[in-house]
Amino acid sequence: MNGKFITFEGPDGAGKTTVMNKVVEQFRQEIGDQLLVTREPGGNKISEQIRRVILDRDNTEMDYRTEALLYAAARRQHLVETIIPALEANKLVLCDRYVDSSVAYQGSGRQIGMQQVARMNEFATENLMPFKTIYFDIPVEVGLNRIAEHRDRSKIDRLDVETIQFHKRVHQGYMKVREHYQDRYISIDATQSFDQVVSETIKIIHRIASDYFKES
Prior knowledge:
CATH superfamily: P-loop containing nucleotide triphosphate hydrolases
Shape: globular
Oligomer: single chain
Strand content: 5-15%
Strand order of the largest sheet: 2-3-1-4-5
Number of domains: 1
CATH topology: Rossmann fold
Helix content: 40-55%
CATH architecture: 3-Layer(aba) Sandwich
CATH class: Alpha Beta
């Protein structure tokens, strides 16, 4: 596979999805069809159906291991149907969340074991990991305040309404993942202004995926 796979990660309220949508506006003008933008859970019909089950606020009785398995199942379908074909076609793939989210949210946040969740996803992905991960770093309280102040109530999902202790465990999980994969992780201070975060993100992707932008 000749393409380049870059993931966006961060705790709730870090703004990574909003930033991603903004930088993509520029990248589409620069490289057009060479760009694939996708998300997890989701990215194709089957994975989006699984996403709706996972994030439905009415599914409060969902077992934590069931949740982790559903994420892995959605990821598998997303990988074989969407990501791998794009990488084989030499595309730049930008993905909003990937395996690291499961390790942080289910492994650490749900306390079912980071290594156990990582192993589950090794099976689901056949060890296909991103080239680089851009991590949007923000204190837990700041992120949750952003959600409370700015997010449309209809878009608040089952994980957004978890306790602050849960979100602190997620953040701790991310810190462990970032430490383990220092060569893969590039961190951005997400407490900066939106324009600063967008500008920094664009510069990073231009640098780490420079081959795609040579003619732009």
